[in-house]
Design a protein that fits this description.
This protein is of the alpha+beta class and 749 residues long. The protein has four domains: 1-33 and 195-219 and 226-332, Up-down Bundle (Multidrug efflux transporter AcrB transmembrane fold), CATH 1.20.1640; 49-164, 2-Layer Sandwich (Alpha-Beta Plaits); 362-406 and 527-718, Up-down Bundle (Multidrug efflux transporter AcrB transmembrane fold), CATH 1.20.1640; 428-524, no CATH class. Helices cover 61% and strands 8% of the residues. The two termini are 47 Å apart. Belongs to the resistance-nodulation-cell division (RND) (TC 2.A.6) family. MmpL subfamily.
Length: 749
């Protein structure tokens, strides 16, 4: 193909290739600059307490816990062979440049560092540096320490070990998800288009989007903290959106070409109609993700950064690069292969008129409009039943229990729960008294420690003045009392039974913050972390919901220019999202169907950040389909003489694409759900479920029924000429029969 248009297309492709190469080069090193965690906002009390402990005190909760257990002929950790090997482990760790402090049972003889059966002992390790440096050191040390060492079998856990393992799994799982998703997506696209060339174009758009997002994320790491989760989710989201946008543009281009339009005219019409919808659709996803930026949690903000970047690149590539490819490739884009042609010949032609012209989805929409009340009530009831489990959600945070059972972190955590008291050893509730002098105010500290030990859920308190249980002071146990003081003040270690991130520990943290103290206190530890994360999330959640709802409502209104229709779209989206949340609680909190998803640990809680995270992504994705549907409905309404015809024909011409687009997105998200990280598995399943529900049940049945019930109100507009893309000339269509057997009159003013 020659001519000025083709030269422009080649120029666009050359610039896109150069940009892709630059992004690939710059973004290749992004993984090395990403941080783990990001759950606890830096300004919270728990985060400040942890920083002060790590930087200002010689003894603090450890980053790593080595759980050693004797095996073979050795019966006790106190036997000479076991003790010699344990001391050798301590020596190796002590000489490592990243280790600040090591304490073990063989050094201290503290009973709390040895199991009751004397077959297991602990080594506690504090690392140098902040969270990112400690995690990097753990990633290097854990593989060296875990495994068999003479008569000792060693497993490693702790906060730094958990973060390092999550980083390792995230990188591995991202590669695996991409390897699984790409060929399956290509196969689905081949079935949709019947052309290998057309099937490869969305994948090319997806690659461009992901490369661009990776470069943006690396650029952001120079000015703010970005967590590792951003790359996994942005990659999956990029391919899913690239397929969505390309699918609708290619389908509209093929439709116009099949109607006899010239290639240039077909492309211009596709961009004016489907391209406009893609632009609005990308805006909905970006605005939905932007609502996550109101939260102070780094992990939510990072995923928003990655999602916004990949959505913008997917839309730009779809609206600029894809048209250039269509211009260069010409008619061969839609030319089916030999096997597809044979299959189509075997199927034979199908045609008709009136309702017979409609496909399955059009007939389904027509049936829904004939019994709108029954369909609306029935579908809503089903969605509310699916949403019901969310009413009993139990809030918590991810801990070592969500690691794969085969990992050393999970094995060590299981051993600690079986043989030790986790609250005592690695995850106590910490109470820091900055600038407090325990030597001058020993009596005040003693009285305060006694009060703390009397609180519900407290097993023991250790501080500079001794060890306390139920209001009684005993000689110091474990670490020396001097470890609880420094020029920066004093601190108390509050041992509690049960799981670290339990509601009992959260309630204890709240109690300790209100308990009278001899000086201002900072309460930290797992319970305080859960309380702070929950408080900060719930404080900003109304703003997130309001921002997402208002901006998406405004964008939908700008597209349709019909207030009732825009509000209906928002409410239907919220309903399908609630059903997805309920299903996630039923599966991941309660453990139903775990075997179908490859198995995963069930803790009986839902991570407090997961609903907000899935809302930010799924709300935009679901509105994505709504935007594309309403765009086509409004276009059909500009042609057809009545509302029922517009809805049915609009759905009929887009529903098949919705189904395939939702299916390809589900494949991409299912690949993400193969991750061994429960967080990624929840996101993958949650997004796939939300989109499948929305693209099938809600759009296929509920939307036509609700629009039929709304009647003329759905099509009312305060503007005299509602915006609609200019349609191509076509023959006049016979209106379809409405719900009551009569034609729906056009109701524009």
């Amino acid at each position: 193909m020659r001519g000025p248009r083709c030269r422009v297309a080649w120029t666009v492709l050359a610039l896109a290739a150069a940009l892709a190469a630059a992004c690939a080069w710059f973004g290749a090193a992004v993984d090395g600059r990403l941080s783990p965690g990001g759950v606890v906002p830096a300004a919270t009390e728990a985060a400040r307490a942890d920083r002060l402990l790590q930087e200002g005190f010689a003894s603090a909760p450890p980053h790593l816990v080595l759980v050693t257990r004797v095996s073979g002929a050795t019966r006790s950790v106190e036997e000479s062979a076991a003790a010699a090997q344990g001391n050798e482990l301590v020596r190796r760790l002590s000489t490592d440049r990243s280790v600040a402090q090591v304490a073990s049972y063989w050094q201290t003889r503290a009973p709390s560092l040895r199991s009751a059966d004397r077959r297991s002992a602990l080594v506690l390790v504090r690392l140098r540096g902040r969270e990112q440096e400690a995690t990097a050191a753990a990633g290097r040390l854990v593989p060296q320490m875990a495994g068999r060492h003479g008569p000792l079998q060693v497993e490693v856990t702790g906060e730094a070990a958990s973060r390092a393992e999550a980083l390792r799994l995230a990188g591995r799982d991202q590669f695996r998800a991409e390897v699984l998703a790409l060929p399956l997506t290509a196969l689905l696209l081949l079935v949709v288009f019947g052309s290998a060339v057309a099937a490869l174009l969305p994948l090319a758009v997806g690659v461009l989007a992901v490369l661009g997002a990776q470069a943006v994320l690396r650029l952001l790491t120079f000015c703010t903290e970005v967590t590792v989760s951003a790359t996994n989710i942005s990659s999956a989201l990029g391919f899913a959106l690239a397929v969505d946008y390309s699918l609708f543009l290619l389908a509209r281009h093929r439709e116009e070409t099949a109607a006899g339009a010239e290639p240039g005219t077909a492309l211009r019409t596709a961009l004016r109609t489907a391209g406009r919808a893609v632009l609005f659709s990308a805006g909905t996803v970006i605005l939905s993700l932007a609502s996550l930026l109101v939260f102070p949690h780094t992990i939510l903000r990072s995923i928003a950064y990655g999602g916004i970047a990949v959505t913008a690149f997917a839309a730009l590539a779809g609206l600029l690069v894809l048209p250039a490819l269509l211009t260069v490739l010409g008619p061969r884009v839609h030319r089916p292969g030999v096997l597809i042609r044979r299959w189509r010949r075997r199927r034979g032609p199908h045609s008709g008129s009136g309702a017979a012209e409609l496909g399955r989805w059009g007939r389904l929409a027509l049936a829904a409009q004939r019994r709108p009340g029954l369909v609306a009530v029935g579908v809503t009831a089903v969605l509310l039943v699916l949403a019901a489990p969310f009413s009993r959600v139990q809030i918590g945070l991810f801990d070592d229990r969500v690691q794969p059972a085969s990992s050393t972190v999970a094995k060590a955590g299981t051993a600690l729960r079986h043989d030790y008291r986790p609250g005592t050893v690695i995850t106590p509730t910490t109470v820091v008294l900055p600038h407090f002098d325990p030597r001058r105010h020993a009596a005040d500290l003693d009285a305060y420690a006694r009060r703390v030990s009397l609180q519900k859920s407290v097993a023991r308190v250790e501080t500079a003045t001794g060890s306390y249980a139920r209001g009684t002071r005993t000689p110091p146990a474990g670490t020396a009392a001097s470890a609880y003081t420094s020029p920066h003040g004093a601190w108390l270690a509050v041992a509690t039974p049960g799981e670290p991130y339990s509601t009992a520990n959260r309630d204890l943290a709240r109690t300790l913050r209100d308990l009278p103290a001899p000086a201002p206190v900072l309460v930290g530890g797992p319970g305080a972390v859960l309380d702070d994360v929950q408080r900060t999330l719930f404080a900003r959640l109304p703003w997130c919901l309001a921002l997402a709802g208002a901006t998406l409502l405004a964008l939908t209104l700008a597209l349709t220019r019909r207030p009732v229709m825009a509000l209906t779209a928002l409410l239907l989206n919220a309903l399908s999202l609630a059903a997805s949340f309920g299903a996630l609680v039923f599966v991941f909190q309660d453990g139903h169907g775990a075997g179908l998803l490859g198995g995963f640990p069930v803790t009986g809680t839902t991570d407090v950040l997961m609903p907000a995270l899935i809302f930010g992504i799924a709300f935009g994705l679901s509105m994505d389909y709504e935007i594309l549907l309403l765009s086509r409905v409004c276009e059909e309404y500009a042609r057809a003489p009545d509302a029922a015809t517009a809805v049915v024909r609009g759905l009929d011409r887009t529903a098949r694409l919705f189904t395939w687009a939702a299916l390809t997105l589900a494949v991409v998200m299912a690949a993400l759900a193969t991750s061994d990280l429960v967080m990624l598995k929840i996101i993958g399943v949650g997004l796939a479920l939300a989109v499948l529900l929305d693209a099938t049940v809600v759009r296929g049945l509920l939307a036509p029924a609700v629009l039929a019930l709304a009647g003329r109100a759905a099509w009312w507009s305060p503007w005299p000429r509602p915006s609609a893309p200019a349609p191509r000339p076509c023959r006049k269509r016979r209106p379809l029969v409405g719900p009551a057997g009569t034609k729906h009159p056009r109701s524009d003013p």
